[in-house]
């Protein structure tokens, strides 16, 4: 792990060398000061020569100024080194999140992932900056001060050295406990994030159910757990700092008494005594810093471990070596003996065979949970087939790069996800380099133009988080506009428009029909009336594909579809539910 951590220094070798050498030089100067005081007290003071005293003071002033400059360099450029490494790690985590597949996101909560990219990496910059140099300087100061102490007085130096094993033991023992604790704390922060995100995101549901008290209780539990974990950290810090404080003070006391005895006995000069006391101060400085060390480093290490855990999560869907970039597909789709399950032991699809010629519209109907959405999710490789293969224009989709395959597929779903920016930004998401004229045209074709014209800010109107300021129909239209702009040869429509009123639904259906014109379209149907004109209807049930054919052929066949149709026909209502009641989405 240490090797891996240090690999992050590679691009910043120059900064590291600058920071490290300035820090060492500054540490050496600190060490030199007590020895200068010894010369001052023992040699200059008895001579009572003011010229020499002032020259020595001027020399010290120059050293101080030099040291000030060194410290400024360490503070600024050293932190720059730390923050560069932290930024790089944050970038890598975010990049990695973009590569992980739907399966990963099915099993991980958003709040936990947000914490990994934010809070977990908070201390890493500090550790990256101070870690190596503090460690080196601490060791250098320890050893340097100790050696100098031996030159001043061997017995006093031996007494002082007794503190070393105590401090080493405290640092290692409490450091390990602290790291475990910080890891737990980061998990708690993740829990917090999840709770707050779900609560705030679902506030409309919380308030509609008047479940605020329930939410408060859940939050209070998380809050309490966080408090306890943090308190535990402070307990560890209290124990370690007390032990250190006591050992430092004891050493200073013993040095005071033993040093006084040696001075009175004539074995130690006054200057030697003063410089020894100063050396003890330099020697114990790293020990006094133990609290911040014990807080910062284990925190950084815990964060780094969680960071590497995320980075080591292999994306289960990635480009094969030699995968090709497909440019413009015709959209001839084939499923060959496709088998798939979300978890290893339970297959949702078995031996699914489908031929969807380019430009045709195929609709999937069937009971809720039969696997209609799943069939469609396999085409953009949101999940990978477990057996069999899917080809587009005769090429296995696993032999295409993911991004080029997905650029050829457009998805419009009932539960549209919009970003919190403007209408323009949301439409442009379909093609980021789309010119203004194409955005306006896409809005027109999705019949958003009237609404946009009526808004004072027009296309620049901010639509609120996830588009809360838009109606259901407007969101659908925006998603359709995005697809007109993207203009993919293949479309997947989760055409669940039951949430909309009759008129809006009719208009959206018209827009969807226009959108699918000339494209290979897979429709996840929730109402039979809307798919009557599909080129082919596929009935999916627990056994796989149960029936296939045109509306008329399937009605004539007298099977499942025919029964569904009769049931709906009997209802006479315009809204014609299939046996499906829940509306699956492509879970985007
Ligand atoms: N991400 C997932 N992880 C695990 N199981 C899932 C996941 N998505 C769907 N399933 C399961 O797979 C089965 C098929 O679901 P799918 O959403 O494909 O059905 P559907 O026919 O589209 O249903 P609906 O008409 O309700 O939308 C269901 O049993 C469902 O519980």
Automatic annotation (TrEMBL):
Q: GO cellular component terms?
A: plasma membrane
Do you know which SUPFAM superfamilies this protein is assigned to?
ABC transporter transmembrane region (SSF90123), P-loop containing nucleoside triphosphate hydrolases (SSF52540)
Which stretches are transmembrane? Answer: 12-33, 53-77, 135-152, 243-264
Compartment(s) where it occurs, according to its Swiss-Prot or TrEMBL record: Cell membrane
The cross-references to InterPro entries, in alphabetical order and at most eight, read:
AAA+_ATPase, ABC1_TM_dom, ABC1_TM_sf, ABC_transporter-like_ATP-bd, ABC_transporter-like_CS, P-loop_NTPase, Type_1_exporter
Where's it mainly located? membrane
Which Gene Ontology terms cover its molecular function? ABC-type oligopeptide transporter activity; ATP binding; ATP hydrolysis activity
Which residue windows does the record flag with biased composition (Basic and acidic residues)? 568-577
- Please state every residue range assigned to the domain named ABC transmembrane type-1: 17-299
Q: ABC transporter domain: from which residue to which, for each copy?
A: 333-567
- The answer on whether this UniProt entry bears the keyword Acetylation reads no
Q: Name one Pfam family in it.
A: ABC_membrane
Q: Which UniProt keywords apply?
A: ATP-binding, Membrane, Nucleotide-binding, Transmembrane, Transmembrane helix, Transport
- Span list, region Disordered: 567-588
- Membrane topology per the record? Multi-pass membrane protein
Compositional bias segments (type: Polar residues): 578-588
Q: Report the sequence similarity comment from the record.
A: Belongs to the ABC transporter superfamily.
Name the chain's protein. ATP-binding cassette, subfamily B
The protein's organism comes out as Neomesorhizobium albiziae
Q: What is the lineage of its organism?
A: Bacteria, Pseudomonadati, Pseudomonadota, Alphaproteobacteria, Hyphomicrobiales
């Amino acid at each position: 792990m240490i090797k891996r951590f240090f690999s992050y220094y590679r691009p910043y070798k120059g900064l590291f060398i600058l920071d490290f050498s300035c820090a060492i030089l500054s540490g050496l100067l600190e060490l030199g000061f007590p020895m200068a005081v010894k010369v001052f007290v023992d040699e200059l003071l008895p001579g009572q020569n003011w010229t020499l005293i002032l020259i020595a003071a001027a020399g010290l002033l120059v050293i101080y100024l030099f040291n000030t400059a060194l410290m400024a360099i360490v503070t600024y450029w050293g932190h720059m080194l730390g923050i560069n490494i932290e930024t790089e790690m944050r970038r890598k985590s975010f990049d990695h999140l973009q590569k992980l597949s739907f399966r990963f996101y099915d099993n991980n909560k958003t709040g936990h992932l947000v914490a990994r990219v934010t809070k977990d990496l908070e201390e890493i910059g500090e550790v990256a900056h101070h870690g190596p140099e503090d460690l080196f300087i601490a060791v250098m100061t320890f050893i340097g001060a100790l050696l100098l102490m031996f030159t001043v007085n061997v017995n006093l130096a031996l007494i002082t050295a007794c503190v070393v094993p105590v401090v080493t033991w405290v640092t290692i023992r409490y450091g390990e406990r602290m790291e475990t604790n910080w890891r737990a704390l980061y998990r708690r922060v993740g829990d917090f994030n999840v709770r707050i995100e779900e609560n705030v995101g679902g506030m409309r549901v919380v308030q509609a159910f008047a479940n605020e008290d329930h939410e408060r209780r859940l939050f209070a539990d998380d809050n309490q757990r966080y408090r306890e974990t943090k308190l535990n950290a402070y307990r560890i810090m209290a124990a370690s700092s007390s032990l250190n404080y006591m050992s430092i003070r004891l050493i200073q006391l013993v040095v005071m008494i033993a040093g006084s005895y040696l001075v009175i006995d004539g074995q130690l000069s006054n200057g030697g005594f003063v410089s020894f006391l100063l050396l003890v101060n330099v020697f114990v400085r790293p020990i006094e810093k133990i609290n911040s060390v014990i807080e910062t480093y284990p925190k950084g290490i815990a964060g780094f471990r969680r960071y590497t855990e995320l980075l080591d999560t292999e994306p289960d869907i990635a480009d094969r070596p030699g995968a090709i970039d497909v440019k413009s597909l015709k959209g001839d789709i084939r499923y060959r003996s496709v088998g798939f399950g979300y978890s290893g032991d339970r297959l949702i699809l078995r031996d699914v065979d489908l031929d969807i010629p380019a430009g045709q519209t195929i609709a999937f109907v069937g009971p809720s949970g039969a696997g209609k959405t799943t069939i469609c999710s396999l085409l953009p490789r949101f999940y990978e087939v477990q057996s069999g293969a899917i080809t587009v224009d005769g090429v296995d989709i696993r032999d295409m790069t993911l991004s080029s395959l997905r650029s050829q597929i457009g998805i419009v779903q009932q539960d549209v996800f919009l970003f919190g920016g403007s209408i323009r930004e949301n439409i442009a998401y379909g093609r980021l380099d789309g010119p203004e004229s194409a955005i306006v045209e896409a809005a027109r074709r999705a019949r958003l133009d009237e609404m946009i014209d009526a808004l004072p800010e027009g296309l620049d109107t901010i639509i609120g988080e996830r588009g809360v300021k838009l109606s259901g129909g407007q969101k659908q239209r925006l998603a359709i506009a995005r697809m007109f702009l993207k203009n993919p040869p293949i479309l997947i429509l989760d055409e669940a428009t039951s949430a909309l009123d009759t008129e809006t639904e009719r208009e959206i259906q018209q827009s969807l029909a226009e959108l699918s014109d000339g494209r290979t379209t897979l429709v996840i149907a929730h109402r039979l009336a809307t798919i009557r004109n599909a080129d082919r209807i596929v009935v999916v049930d627990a056994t796989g594909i149960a029936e296939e054919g045109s509306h008329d052929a399937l009605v004539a066949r007298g099977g499942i579809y025919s029964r569904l149709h009769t049931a709906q026909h009997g209802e006479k209502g315009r809204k014609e539910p299939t046996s499906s009641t829940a509306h699956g989405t492509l879970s985007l």
